[in-house]
Amino acid sequence: MKHILVVDDEPYYLAMLEDMININIDYQVYSAKDGVEADSVLESRKIDAVVTDVYMPEKDGLELLLQLREQDIPVIIVSGGGRFGDDYLEPAKKFGAYAILRKPFLQKDLLNALSSALET
Fold it and tell me: What is the CATH number of the domain that holds 78?
């Protein structure tokens, strides 16, 4: 079983991500509302991949990506654009995000990206 951490500060999107991934019985999903809470999960669980929003208070998705890059945990960034537009997504590509999905995205696109990331 693969352990997936989803991180989003918006409760609706956090629940949606959990639901989208939970359809796969080979995945155990954990959630966090921001990068700081994600750190707690990462300290207590072995996580195989992370799906994270990029714009969050406290510790954002880019900070999380940089941290996880050093641990060889694949990161999929999800973004609705937000106040920074696409400017925030360029560094995500540069820093090694496995995939970047723009909200709204299809469940199959998320599951395909996740499956691919876990195979590498």
Answer: 3.40.50.2300
